[in-house]
Specification:
There is one protein chain. The protein is an alpha/beta fold. 43% of the residues lie in helices and 15% in strands. It is built from 12 helices and 12 strands. The strands form 4 sheets. The chain has a 4-stranded parallel beta sheet. Strands 1-2-4 form a 3-stranded parallel beta sheet. The protein has a 3-stranded antiparallel beta sheet with strand order 10-11-12, covered by helices on one side. β1, α2 and β2 form a beta-alpha-beta unit. It starts with a helix and ends with a strand.
Amino acid sequence: MKEARAIYERCVRRTLSHGTTTAAYYATISVKSTNLLADICLELGQRALIGRVAMDTGSPDSYRDPSAEEALQRTKASIAYIESIDPSGDLIQPIITPRFALGCSRQSMQLLGQLHRNANVPVQTHISETEGECQAVEEKYPGHTYASVYDEMGLLGEQTILAHAIHLSRQERALLSQRGARISHCPLSNDALGSGAARVRWLLDGGLIVGLGTDVSGGYSPSVLQAARQACLVSRRVAETEGDDAKLSVPEVLHLATKGGAKVLGLKNKIGELSEGMCWDAQLIELAHVPENSKDLSMPVDIFGHEDWNEKIAKWVFNGDDRNTVAVWVNGRLVHGSIKE
């Protein structure tokens, strides 16, 4: 547990330093370490949905649940603990986390689907990340698509978060939209692993809610800003075959990173925008003006004074990093950085 504490604490501090006020975590199969992650998020002030990963097949015996029933009981134990440390759910919430359709048996997914409905706890899992994965799912479940497998198991609904969704068919898109499932677009890991390019405009046009994910450590950066940047670039690659309408603008990827993410997590009435009645989850960004004849290259974004507001924001999206993040608040609490009096 000492190693788990060191890693999880570093992870939470690092993501906060990049302005991530809210995270949806896939922890591990261990109840104890998953509960520890919840403790650390509560202690450091990061808003989080935390899931003990359920997986009872397709993995080494040393790293999987021994049975579907054991996966259910371990998941219930972690849910009970997380609800006990934050009964109101204002900051920390549990989330049911079947790893994906090839990592869970039919029985395990059915039991977790029943738990989702009975306990009113959200679900997160993966869908259609690679073409080979999609083919393997259809071979394991003849007559089904990837999406219909989850639907049959009771895992699709308005509280379902699905990572990736790169290789969905039109039929699957319609099913996910009908069920109200949400998509976490993870361009960093998709490019790092060569999984493909998600058609975000196509997903949005199909009525799906889309936000951004970093998918660490499949993705190479803990920064949602970096994910927004990559989402812009990926959309341009998609546009090579889908047409210019597929391109995402800077305001659109920032929406995916903020309001879109809040909608995906079911928190649109609490966070995602700065307006009256919303929680004060915010970051303060410094875009310093470059003094005349300055040789200081310590900051990543150069502002010369002629830029309008949109140009400044675009410079930050394409060049900024955690050095620009001066301070971060979650629910009104300063959780990273400092403010000069």
